[in-house]
Structure formats: structure tokens, C-alpha cells
């Protein structure tokens, strides 16, 4: 294994929510993400300087992503005291696009997303990858419109 520059390793990904509690509840119920205490409640000059957001305050949590054990990466879900509206999510928009979860059954997971306030974005499709495996996948959105990819992999035939 190659040593990453500066000892880099993945830590977390962040999503800014209009209602961090509702979004955290969604990721816990639908994907089994687990709360990593404590809840965060930040403000003050250090946060303002670090974020370059005047009078910044934020609240939220880290959610441990499933499948990587007690020290695995987290999804950080925060709500700022004053959020700035974002554009419409689109799979081809420049910037971070989506978070992906490997699931046993894409269709069943898609239904669970819908039952918990999410929505369909695209159709379920299956394709063969360059390494001979097949992947069944689709895009859905969480209750706040953030894109989520659901995928299920099969072994090479």
C-alpha cells in the first residue's frame, strides 16, 4: 500500500441541512448510520475565521457510515444559524455530486428511501463494468434533495 502524502486518510463528508435532526434521522433509519456523540453546537470567532462566514453558528452531528466499524468515516450533518440556498441537485452539476451506499437490493432500498421522505431521481439500471462485474444502481434523493446513489454488485460471470 502506498503512503498518502502528508499521512492523508479519509475522515468525513459534510452536508448542510435545513433541518439537521430530520436528515440525521433519515440516514439512521434508511441506511443504518449511527450517531457519534456528542451533538455539536459551535459559534464564535474561531468558527467565523475558519469558515469565512460572518457570525457563523452551527449545530449538528456526525453519523458513522455503515460497514466500516467503530472507527470508520462519518457523515457530518450540520445546520448553520443562517444557511445560504443552494442550487437544484443534478447528477451533472460541477462539484460534489452524491453519496453512494452499497445495498443488497436496490429496488427495496429505493422504496425505503421513498417511504422515509426521499424521492426517485432516475431509473434503476444494470450494466456490466470493465472488470466483468455487473452493477445495479439508481439515484434517489434524501428528504432535502441531496443525491444518493444506491448500488448492488455481482461477481464476474
UniProtKB/TrEMBL annotation:
Q: Which residues form the VOC domain?
A: 9-153
A Pfam family of the record is Glyoxalase
Say yes or no: keyword Metal-binding present: yes
Swiss-Prot/TrEMBL keywords: Metal-binding
Name of the molecule in the record: Catechol 2,3-dioxygenase-like lactoylglutathione lyase family enzyme
Amino acid at each position: 500500500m502506498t503512503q498518502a502524502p502528508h499521512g492523508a486518510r479519509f475522515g468525513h463528508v459534510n452536508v448542510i441541512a435545513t433541518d439537521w435532526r430530520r436528515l440525521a434521522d433519515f440516514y439512521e433509519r434508511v441506511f443504518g448510520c449511527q450517531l457519534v456523540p456528542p451533538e455539536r453546537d459551535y459559534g464564535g470567532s474561531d468558527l467565523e475565521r475558519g469558515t469565512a462566514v460572518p457570525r457563523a453558528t452551527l449545530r449538528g452531528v456526525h453519523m458513522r457510515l455503515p460497514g466500516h466499524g467503530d472507527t470508520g468515516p462519518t457523515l457530518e450533518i450540520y445546520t448553520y444559524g443562517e444557511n445560504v440556498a443552494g442550487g437544484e441537485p443534478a447528477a451533472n452539476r460541477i462539484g460534489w455530486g452524491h453519496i453512494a451506499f452499497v445495498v443488497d437490493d436496490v429496488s427495496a432500498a429505493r422504496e425505503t428511501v421513498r417511504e422515509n421522505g426521499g424521492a426517485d431521481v432516475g431509473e434503476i439500471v444494470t450494466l456490466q463494468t470493465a472488470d466483468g462485474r455487473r452493477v445495479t444502481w439508481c439515484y434517489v434523493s434524501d428528504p432535502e434533495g441531496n443525491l444518493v446513489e444506491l448500488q448492488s454488485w455481482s461477481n464476474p460471470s
